[in-house]
Amino acid sequence: MVGRIERALHANEYTLGVFFDIEGAFDNTSCQSVEQALDEKKVHQVVSAWKINMLDRYSLTANMAAF
To answer: What is the pLDDT of the chain when averaged over all its residues?
Structure first.
């Protein structure tokens, strides 16, 4: 990721990174409330749709391996 950002900067291009690290957000927030907040903040429709799609399809897989 850092390499992509650096290449974009050297080429005078734009780079967008979105990071979410909100404890309990996936367990306690509905997609509808996130969508409403994004609309209120006038987030671009493409970004908003991407985020809602990611939240709606969120799943977690855990594997345990013996070492």
So the answer is: 81
pLDDT greater than 60 at residue 67: no
Placement of tokens 């974009």 in the chain: 8
* Domain extent for 33: 29-57
Q: Is residue 39 in some structural domain? A: yes
DSSP 24: T
**48 falls within a domain:** yes
CA distances from 60 to 6, 35, 53, 57, 63 (A): 31, 22, 15, 10, 10
Q: Is the pTM of this model over 0.70?
A: no
Distance CA(59)–CA(26), nearest Å, equals 10
Whole-number Å distance between alpha carbons of 54 and 58: 6
Q: Confirm whether 52 is domain-assigned.
A: yes
